Amino acid sequence: MPTGTLLCESLTKVYDDSKGKKALDSVSFEVPSHGIFSLIGMNGAGKTTLVRILATQLAPTAGRATINGLDVMSDAKKIREHIACIPQEARTIPWMTPKQTVLSYLLWRGVGYSEAGRRATEALAEIGLEAQVNLLNRRLSGGTKRKALVATVLSSDAEIIFLDEPTTGLDPISRQELWTSLARLAEHRFLILTTHYLEEAERLANFIGVLHHGKLVGLGTLDQLRSTLKYQYSLMVTSDAELPVVREGIVTRARTGQTQILTDESEAYEISKLLLEKGVKFSMSKVSLEDIFFHLVHRTGEAGPE
Amino acid sequence: MRAWGREVLASVLVNSIYEMKNYPVVLLNTVLSPLSFLIVITFVSRGQLIGEAIEGGFIMSMFQSGMSLQGDLSHLKNDFKLQDMVVSSPTTPSAYVAGMALGEIIYSIPALAVLTVLAAIYIQPGTVETLELLGVFLLMFLGSVAMGFTLSTFSSDIVQSFAFSRLISTVFATLPPVYYPITYIPLPFRYAAYLSPTTYAGEIAQSSTGLIQLPATDIFSAWTILLAVTLALFLIAVRKSRWRDV
Question: Is residue A27 in some structural domain?
């Protein structure tokens, strides 16, 4: 499948039982179909709906979407030869082993039995499950089950992979290992990744889309999204510290409980100098995806849980 | 064609072989379910209805295999999101369902083996009768598979789905006269029994092995109705079932 773009034009979804509420509201965007495109948003923002439409599992109510020029509705059969998907609530089947899980998935993709067995063993080893290959899934921890599922798409030849919250339930070390695998995978394939972990999107994604109440409220590279904010730098200071006068930026209370100063580059350096002279402990960085996310979500209305 | 075969194999492995291999205890249920009625009917009739009961056991096994498909597909779709993973792959719905249905038959092999031995001892059908019986059982299976698949694609709740599967099995395979002749049912209720395709399957099976006597026109109309119902269920499955959600 030649690379190109992932294009959505006025994509809208209204579920039959939703009393007219739009799960996706005229979403339009175009991103290159390589590397990692991450979708972030609160619960109910429309991430899974968008992924299910793009992965040919769900029909949109209106609008269209194409992947490398192929329409997700009319060219679904062709698209399905090139995609693989781990749905958000996918679970391993308890009466199967991780090897049987991957092997059967590869058979569904048309791979021969012996080849499927070999590739299953390799994929499970790559994701660190050599010792659990032949254990029943019901005996595995939640994170290990999740890894076994991710191994199914890793083992496939699919050039476009949809991962709906793949690292949910993983411990920090397993998550780091999976990030390494995903980054390696994205060298040759296009990954569409939804996540609640903003750090994950920040670290892995080439492009980030922010969904809120079914609308796309932000799209771009991390730097492009950062440029939507007035201030590009963040200083975090303990809440009881005496602060110097902030002329350009704003002072706010961070979600960690610390005091956060958002400002431009020159003032950030001035303030940091003053804080150093006073011996106040602080950290300085470019604004994070978390800052951007909260800015975008607040800008478009209430940010509380739906 | 080779890829289609692999897709079918995947469904068979997931829906029967792996479960039978890793949880052998589940086989007991598949053996006991159709045999329990057979035993009751045989004892109550003091052995008079053992032939009808064996044939009823076959019909119930085949029908239940198809209806179990509904519960199993719903379970795999809603609880494991397996169907979503398969939809986003080159697998065709026909390969997925054919393999899953074949898996249900494999699951029923222990019960079918016991029934085959009993049929060889107590019914002793000839070649033509055997072919006739196989035809009836196959139609029963295909019809219930089509019904099961269609219902599973609409299901979004596994508890409701299993309850529905049991209800349909009871209505179509337990209440109608498949374990005994229809003449045992009081006349007004016979009309209701004829609403179920399993009644026609029972009549054809019982008549072919000489357990009941029916005019040729009745046998012909029973075959016609059974074929028409199976065809209709298949058409509904093709037209109304959903591979992609809406």
Answer: yes
Cβ contacts below 8 Å, chain A against chain B, sum to 104
Distances in whole angstroms, Cα of residue B41 to Cα of each of A5, B37, B47, B197, B211? 66, 6, 8, 21, 15
In this complex, do B90 and A109 lie within 8 Å of one another by their Cβ atoms?
yes
Residue A52 tokens, joined: 């299910």
Which residue range forms the structural domain that includes residue A267?
A: 233-286
Q: How far apart (Å, rounded) are the C-alpha atoms in residues B144 and B170?
A: 13
- For A237, other C-beta atoms within 10 Å of its C-beta total 23
Sheet bearing A250-253, strands edge to edge = A250-253, A259-263, A233-237, A282-286
Same domain flag for A126 and A179: yes
Helix (H, G, I), strand (E, B) or coil at A211: strand
Indicate whether this model's pTM tops 0.90: no
Q: Tell the residue number behind the tokens 């495109």, with chain if given.
A: A37
- Contact between A151 and A139 (Cβ < 8 Å): no
B chain contacts of residue A52, beta-carbon cutoff 8 Å: 84, 245
Name the domain count of chain A.
2
Instruction: Kindly state the tokens that stand for A46.
Output: 């429309």
Q: Find the residue in A nearest to B243 (Cα).
A: A57
Which residues, other chains included, contact B200 with Cβ-Cβ below 8 Å and sequence gap of 6+?
B194, B222, B223, B225, B226
A217 and A269 fall within a common domain: no
What residue spans define the domains of chain B?
A: 2-240
Tens of pLDDT along chain B (246 residues)?
788 999 999 999 999 999 988 888 877 877 777 788 888 888 999 999 999 999 999 998 898 888 888 888 888 998 999 999 999 999 999 999 999 999 999 988 888 999 999 999 999 999 999 999 999 999 999 999 998 888 887 777 777 777 887 788 788 877 888 889 998 998 888 888 999 999 999 999 999 999 999 999 999 999 999 999 999 999 998 888 888 888
A58, A104, A112 ranked by CB distance to B14: nearest? A104
Same domain, A19 and A79: yes
* Same domain as A97, residue A16: yes
Residue A189 lies in a domain: yes
Does A252 lie in the same domain as A205?
Answer: no
Strand partners, A39: A194, A209
Contact A96 B14 (CB under 8 A): yes
As given in the structure block, the two tokens for residue A73 are 């509705």
Residues A142 and A245 in one domain: no
CA angle in degrees (0–180, nearest 5) for A165-A166-A171:
110
- The verdict on A97 and A217 lying in the same domain is yes
